[in-house]
Design brief:
By secondary structure, this protein is mainly beta. The chain is built from one helix and eleven strands. The termini are far apart.
Length: 188
């Protein structure tokens, strides 16, 4: 009988330790360094069947693979450039270079020159991860040259290799340059 009491006491103490451990919150993961999540030269066109933004496709889509989009040097930095005079609609994709956590953000920056079109219109810039649109921004045309910079809060974790889709559609002949897409620690 005594041995059962000892075992019962030990089991009770173990149960108490487990319950105390369950009540505490896990330690937050340490912030990681700022790193690019995509490379300018890594973007490739998305087939319509996999395009998150396919419902916006105009008819006809005109997108010259040599003149419509390219990687070029802009102020000493490689950028992914879309020239909508040659490409009125494009979604490109690549696998994320790193994993992304819900406690982190994406810093996205796009530069555009003066925007023009035969009549007023709206351009759409967008980013999707693994088929989920995480950011969209309409831009009025005509418009001054400018910088679009945004911080995207991630709705969940994504593994390294998650499919990124960057989208541009636009009326008129304009130039858009994606020059930053980075993972950064979130702000508390």
């Amino acid at each position: 009988m005594e041995s059962m009491g000892v075992q019962g006491t030990g089991a009770g103490a173990l149960l108490a330790l487990v319950l105390v451990g369950c009540g505490s919150e896990p330690e937050p993961l340490p912030p990681r360094e700022i790193v690019p999540i995509a490379e300018p030269e890594g973007w490739t066109p998305v087939p319509p069947a996999q395009d998150v933004y396919v419902d916006r496709r105009p008819s006809p889509v005109r997108c010259d693979p040599e003149l419509g989009y390219t990687v070029e040097d802009y102020i000493g930095q490689q950028v992914f450039k879309v020239d909508t005079g040659w490409c009125n609609f494009i979604t490109v994709e690549q696998g994320a270079l790193v994993d992304l956590r819900a406690d982190e953000i994406i810093d996205l920056k796009v530069w555009h020159f003066e925007l023009s079109a035969p009549e007023p219109a709206q351009a759409l810039l967008a980013l999707a991860i693994d088929g989920e649109s995480v950011w969209e921004q309409s831009v009025a045309i005509p418009g001054e040259a400018g910088l679009i910079e945004t911080v995207i809060e991630l709705p969940r974790d994504y593994p390294e290799g998650a499919q990124l889709q960057f989208h541009v559609d636009n009326h008129g002949s304009n130039n858009w340059m994606l020059f930053r897409l980075e993972r950064e620690p979130g702000s508390d």
